[in-house]
Design goal:
The chain has a 7-stranded mixed sheet, sandwiched between helices. Strands 9-10-8-13 form a 4-stranded parallel sheet, with helices on both faces. The chain has a two-stranded antiparallel sheet with strand order 4-5. Helix 7 (222-234) links the parallel strand 9 (212-214) and strand 10 (240-245). The protein is of the alpha/beta class. The protein contains 10 helices and 15 strands.
Length: 370
């Protein structure tokens, strides 16, 4: 018989996304309605296995209805998040000055049991959900996952919250750049997030009527990008808008990485500036680069993301009540249901190169550099 639930923990991991607070609020309200206590683990799992970082060891905080009042529209996460310090490969300085990765997951499992938690609702992307899944298996922890990423690149769900907000902001930025690009007869390169999947670049690029969209799924040829710009110039269109996913790859080349350290994920960056410099050299057109970066993560969630977040949070609590464990709540329109977490963890949903949006873009004359 499944142990009755009295206390549950919630954490947010990986990059922040508009809608995280709405998920937390829905979880707290739905759980409190059932007579459960809810606690937030601060900064991923740091609140449990690095309590010394917090005043009075306050790395785990009670989440009451009063504490989550008025947070649905707020960006970020009231319990904090991190995308560093994987507990299974935690970087530890050695006496000789080197860094060694050690497994500290046992400390989290011990702390989880010490706090008397009956279940964990983990909100995160593929990496965070993979860590939660492994912790749950090792510690026999009841687990429900909630998919979160502005990149919309998780398997099993039609949409992740944060994506609509990111695309809406990127599209507005592209709209604003049209007028200044046309006024100065420039090429504007807009770099957006998207390490291994180009959903943001594709959707914002098409919605914002870009002329070229470069995504990781379609290796690009700069000669073809230059041809597109020159063809517009010859037709009297003396400006161009280029939208670039940070993880786009040139044919025969590699991704643009600016940082790789032990215990950290590769940090992509610099691609927009590189492409801008190449375009200016190849076309003799004045070219500028705008990097939207973390602006895509900030700000209030759109109405779509707020509603999706609230639905996901409430569904996670219902899943626990039904006795589910090891599942992720996903959007399968018109309903939210559950799938095994191993169908989501460590998997990336790439943009299909023959999807309707790409076919539409090609019909509209948008170049993918191929």
């Amino acid at each position: 018989m499944t142990q009755p639930i009295k206390r549950i923990a919630v954490n947010t991991g990986g990059g922040d996304a508009p809608g995280l607070n709405a998920v937390i609020r829905a979880i707290v309200h739905a759980a409190t309605k059932r007579g459960w206590e809810v606690f937030g683990i601060r900064d991923g799992y740091n609140g449990i296995f690095l309590p010394e970082r917090y005043p009075n060891g306050d790395g785990v905080i009670p989440l009451t209805r009063a504490r989550v009042r008025g947070i649905t529209h707020l960006g970020g996460t009231i319990i904090g998040t991190t995308n560093r310090g994987n507990p299974f490969h935690y970087p530890m300085p050695q006496p000789d000055g080197t860094i060694k990765e050690v497994d500290r997951s046992g400390e989290i499992i011990e702390g989880f049991k010490k706090h008397g938690f009956d279940a964990l609702i983990a909100i995160g992307g593929d990496g965070s959900l993979s860590m939660a899944h492994e912790l749950a298996k090792r510690g026999n922890i009841r687990l429900i996952g909630v998919p979160k990423t502005i990149d919309n690149d998780l398997e099993g769900t039609v949409a992740t919250f944060g994506f609509d907000s990111a695309v809406s902001f990127a599209t507005e930025a592209i709209d604003r750049l049209h007028s200044t690009a046309e006024s100065h007869h420039r090429v504007m390169v807009v770099e957006v997030m998207g390490r291994t999947a180009g959903w943001i670049a594709l959707n914002a690029g098409v919605a914002g009527t870009a002329d070229v969209v470069l995504i990781p799924e379609i290796p690009y040829d700069m000669n073809l990008v230059a041809e597109k710009i020159n063809a517009r110039e010859a037709a009297g269109r003396n400006f161009s808008i280029i939208v670039v996913a940070e993880g786009a790859i040139p044919k025969g080349g590699t991704t643009s990485v600016v940082e790789k350290e032990v215990g950290k994920a590769e940090r992509f960056g610099g691609l927009g500036e590189k492409i801008a410099a190449q375009i200016q050299t190849m076309t003799q057109k004045e070219t500028r680069c705008v990097v939207l970066g973390h602006l895509l993560r900030g700000g209030s969630p759109t109405a779509f993301d707020r509603l999706l977040s609230l639905r996901f949070g409430a569904a996670a609590v219902r899943a626990l009540e039904e006795g589910q464990s090891g599942v992720v709540v996903v959007l399968n329109p018109p309903t939210v249901n559950y799938i095994p977490i191993d169908q989501v963890a460590d998997r990336v949903r790439h943009v299909p190169v023959d999807c309707d949006t790409i076919l539409t873009a090609r019909d509209l004359g948008i170049s993918f550099g191929d």
